[in-house]
User: Fold this.
Amino acid sequence: MATTPWPGRGLIMMADHLILLCPMLRAEVEQMDRHDLPPDAVDILHFDARCEDRRHYRKALPGCIDIDDYRRVDILSGPCLAGADDGVSGEHPVRLHRNVTCFDLLLNPTTVQAYIKDGHYLLSPGWLASWRTRLASWGVDEESARAFFGELPGDLLMVDTGVDPRAHTALSRMAAYVGKGKRDVSVGTDYLLTRLRALFLEGRIEGMARDSEQRLLESSQRLSHYAMGLDFVRQIAASQEESEIQRYIVDMFRMFFAPREVTFHEPDGEHANVPAEKTSDGFRLPVRWKDRVFGLVEVAGLAHPEYRDRYLEVGEVLLQVCALAISNARHYATIRHLAQTDGLTGVANRRQFDAFLHRSWERARADGTPLAVLLCDLDNFKEYNDTMGHAMGDECLKRVASAIETKCLRPTDLLGRYGGEEFGVVLPGADPDAARAVASRIRRAVADLEIPHGSSPISRNVTISVGAFASVPEDNLSPAFFVQMADKALYQAKKAGRNRVDFIEA
Assistant:
């Protein structure tokens, strides 16, 4: 098969690698930056299958291609090819990368499952472009569609890759048609590009490893490098933590080049725009994705400096996937933060509160240390909203949350919005006396805000009631029991006149 030069990358095989994707991702592939996925090296096409097909991959191959023309074929699918299995056609391996949902190609699978668990129905721009036709293919009309989607507790959630400006209009129309709420989460195409680049690099490393067997002077060293590179590429592409990716980079360069020292520099002023360059006994390479620099890798004391040019080439290729993985990890961290944070007050949301309580309970039970839960409720807040308006009510909630978090809690504590005007507090290691003290500080901190409340029967300003419970967790004292006792104490505080703290003994 003929070869063609790829600038800065040497000779590569001409389109000997095929990647097949869901046809719903056609627009994403067409609009993504393919600088490092050159068309003369890898073909990216779409298999022929719908979400409900469940067909074998051989029956979903486009009629215009013959997989025997490729040295490697990767198929990225969701459940539409759930009946398929990994196969081999002659000497040409076909790898089926089956995902639980097709959205796992656009977003971290953990986040996808969290949205599904919340009862949201996920949609892509590609699917929304023909949503009426899709519903018709299910054999449902408007009435039956409303009945079907009405059983879901969540909203229609568009995983927005930003490739179709008409997608938001289509989402609104479908939401009105089926009678559901709508939401969207912006993800871009970087996660998909990470997956594609990892597969391309795997294929390239694999192909180079095969070719290197024919190069007697270089075969031994290249084969070991490519095998290690393949493992590291897989680990890095799957990583979700930036610090973990940085460690992988340092370990990878140590194994590849056997230097005296490898250092990863953060992109501060000194290392922000350093180009790839040779040094007296090593080299420096930026970790760059598009116009962003995520760091600088400095290699010193090469055991074999005569191979430095080759090391630079290999290092540049590997750092491309590392840089994109760091970009994706930062994007995932942002999405994870949004999924755990109350949009109004900026404190933890109910899901994060429950998860933190469960982890703290497990740790306290194992260590035999106390744990406290407080529930706080703004007094007569409905009357405040009715009198002052909801905009002022929102501002009041934000000020109260900020005062509690900054003036009353330790870094190890957690404040969450429990619902409406109610807040929950988890205090790891707090015994009954400490829980009472924190609850009293919260009540005073809210009073000190002196937010006027003309409709309150108990005070001129906004006040808060607090219920508290603390104990050492045991099997019969579950996390839910801690919340129930704190809620019972809160009820007693309100019944006794509000603007007070009440505590229930274990």
In short: The chain has 15 helices and 19 strands. The CA atoms of residues 160 and 435 lie 44 Å apart. The two ends are 77 Å apart (CA to CA).
